[in-house]
Amino acid sequence: MYKNQYGLEIHLIKGDITEVEADAIVNAANSYLQHGGGVAYTIVKKGGYVIQKESDEYVEKHGPVPVGEVAVTSAGKLKAKYVIHAVGPRYGIESEDKLESAISKSLLKADELSLTSIALPAISTGIYGYPYEICARIMASVLRNYKPVTLRKVIVCLYSQDAYDVFKEVFDSIL
Ligand code: AR6
User: Fold this and answer.
1) CB 3.0–4.6 Å: which of 16, 59, 124, 170 could bond 88 by disulfide?
2) How confident is the model at residue 40, as a pLDDT?
3) Is residue 38 lining ligand 1, measured as CB closer than 6 Å?
4) How far apart are CA 76 and CA 64, in angstroms?
5) Dist. CA 139 → ligand 1 center (Å)
């Protein structure tokens, strides 16, 4: 466990984010909130169709979610209260500052909803192709500087041992 200068707890775990106990889990989404693959697919499969339905309604009402921005839905049958859908950049097409934005806006949204805990996956490191190391570095620096309001605990959830090892090394050096 790490703690930043504002007392925010940061936990690094290996596992399936849909099993994590947190007020909100973050989804690695696309702009159209079509949850067809990766962690997004698992979230809808386990949480239920209501998450896709609310996502469709969101896009219909507000238009596509820009890269680096977030949208919120309920979490259906998952333990969490909300799913925060964060749209990360595609490697080689969209820049790292969009990844920084997707991560920090997820945290800001959790605080806006007065939540105390949030779980984050390694956004953009699957289908969108970012190397784990870049994502880890950006996430660590956002978490190091983030001043929370109600948020007390951030759980960074890695799916593979490979990803976990890279994040551990980077977090140990930055946090
Ligand atoms: N729990 C935690 N992490 C997971 C899980 C899980 N159950 N499943 C996969 N990961 P990706 P992206 C990891 O591809 O790169 C989708 O189709 C995975 O190993 O889910 O941001 C969306 O709808 C990887 O490290 O998201 C978008 O179209 C990380 O989660 C697009 O993919 C992110 O991989 C978004 O691509």
Assistant:
1) 124
2) 98
3) yes
4) 22
5) 16
Q: Is 2 exposed, middle or buried (0-12, 13-18, 19+ CB in 10 A)?
A: middle
Task: Quick: pLDDT tens for 18-61.
Answer: 999 999 999 999 999 999 999 999 999 999 999 999 999 999 99
Q: Is the C-beta atom of 122 inside 6 A of ligand 1?
A: yes
> Is there an atom of ligand 1 within 6 Å of 123 CB?
yes
Q: How does pLDDT run across 85-113, given as a tens digit for each residue?
A: 999 999 999 999 999 999 999 999 999 99
Distance of CA 41 to the CA centre of its chain: 14
Cα separation of 155 and 11, whole Å?
5
Ligand 1 pocket member 125 (CB < 6 A)? yes
Q: Evaluate: CB of 131 within 6 angstroms of ligand 1.
A: no
Mean pLDDT for the chain overall: 98
Place of tokens 């049958």: 77
pLDDT score of 41: 98
Neighbours of 25 (CB within 10 A): 29
Two tokens at 40? Answer: 């997004």
Distance CA 102, CA 86 (A): 6
Q: What are phi and psi of 59, to 5 degrees?
A: -65, -35
